[in-house]
Protein 1
Amino acid sequence: MQHPCPKATLQAALAQVGGIFGWKVQALDATSASAWVPASACRFNFDPNRPSSPPGVASTEFPDGSNGWPTSTSPVRTEGTFTFTNGGVTDVTTYEYWSDTDATHRTITPTVQGGSASVKITPTVVGPTSCT
């Protein structure tokens, strides 16, 4: 059975728990119940404040076209360096990214909190591609 937890509920509890929440799970049927697992709860931090601007991603080899379609980019199947920036948020600890040609979610951690982080990616298709 799913019990949704709306954002308003988390916001109301935020002051009481400092933004750290945890959960455990238990299986039930008509005759028995499992133990609550995991033994120590899975924990997550909740920050209800949306960043004022999104993080950025840029590549010299594969420019984003924000100033019109680039006159040239590196050829397909050429490795490029993509740099993720914090968009003005100073407490970024991890960037999560994927592309429209590879839905695998990957992460990269900046060397300092709030810093940028770079990753090498090799585009595999010709034409516009997005990295989110």
Note: The CA atoms of residues 63 and 70 lie 7 Å apart.
Protein 2
Amino acid sequence: LQHEEKKPQVFFHLGRALVAMVAENASPEARAAAYEDAIVVFRQGWQVAPLDTTFPLEIAFLYGELGRFAEAEPLYRDALTRDPCSDAVKQVYRYHQNSWQKSMRAHDAAPPGADPPPPK
């Protein structure tokens, strides 16, 4: 495994596997825990390949899924700065913005003291 630690694709596939394991049938708590683990793995991959824009986009997406939209925002902005013509980056950034707006509307409509919605 030490030899594989230099290969960013190992971190990409491991992070994606963690997300896929809880894709549909997991509890919100299990999904959140797997997403947090995947974020750690994607960050390790990003350290190995700091110019690879895949890792920050994966992290940003998971932050959004966890409702941590403000943490995702600079990662998306950086991706857009690096590749302003990328339709894929623009699309995931729009999804992020729409999700954040929906979350804010849901929070504003909730009664005072209500718990925030669980992660998707």
Note: The helical segments are 8-21, 28-48, 54-65, 69-82, 87-109.
Protein 3
Amino acid sequence: IEFAQPQSPTGTRVERQDLTEFLRYYTSEDNAEALGDPALTRRFQALESFLKRELEHVYVYRVGDEPRIVVLALGTTKDGQRLVGFRTVSIET
């Protein structure tokens, strides 16, 4: 299944990323110290593993421009009947 680019107001930037690419900083053992808590790295690794195990065609959509970017991680259920995921906001400076 290939998702269409989400509709957004004219001029709004929408970028699609692979889930692994999006989470790479947070799931890397090399960055565990930088995150301030090695347990946080394990939690992000568990999140990535769960999403990949339970969903298919998982992508991350980054909507908007810095400093406030809306992030949608979306995929389909194994039976292909539902689109599920989560939404968060990334503040980037």
Note: Residues 14-91 form a domain with the Nuia fold (CATH 3.40.1460.10).
